[in-house]
Amino acid sequence: MDNETAILALATLHLKAAEELFHIQQFHQALYLAGYAVELTLKARIVRLLNLPDLYSGKYENEIIKIYRTHDFKRLVLLSGLKTQLDTFTAGDPVLANH
Question: Distance between CA 62 and CA 99 in Å, rounded?
């Protein structure tokens, strides 16, 4: 998983699996895989924004790059440049606003 295309392909695979699990009422597993697909999509965007197609390949091991190796949704949204858009989208919903 070392470039945007590979990361997005894996995200798509997980999303399709999540849909299949949802249809057979395996909701917890479906939610987990859907969340993983979102995480991967955010990471693909970060790879594109930083113009570092091999960001997640292990090539970069310094402290700055480690910031991008996270599963923290809020951090990934921020690093992907989508925080303002997400805040705007969720502002009218009290449940979503506490993302």
Answer: 29
pLDDT of residue 93: 86
Residue located via tokens 């990361």 = 7
CB atoms within 10 A of CB 2: 15
4 touches 40 (CB < 8 A) = no
Residue 80 burial (10 A CB sphere; 0-12, 13-18, 19+): buried
33 and 18 Cβ atoms separated by less than 8 Å:
yes
Alpha-carbon torsion 37, 39, 40, 45, what sign? Answer: positive
Task: Note the pLDDT tens digit of each residue in 50-67.
Answer: 887 777 667 776 766 777
Domain assignments of the chain as residue spans, ordered by start: 4-98
Task: For residues 37 and 43, give the distance between their C-alpha atoms in angstroms, rounded to a whole number.
Answer: 10
pTM (2 d.p.)? 0.82
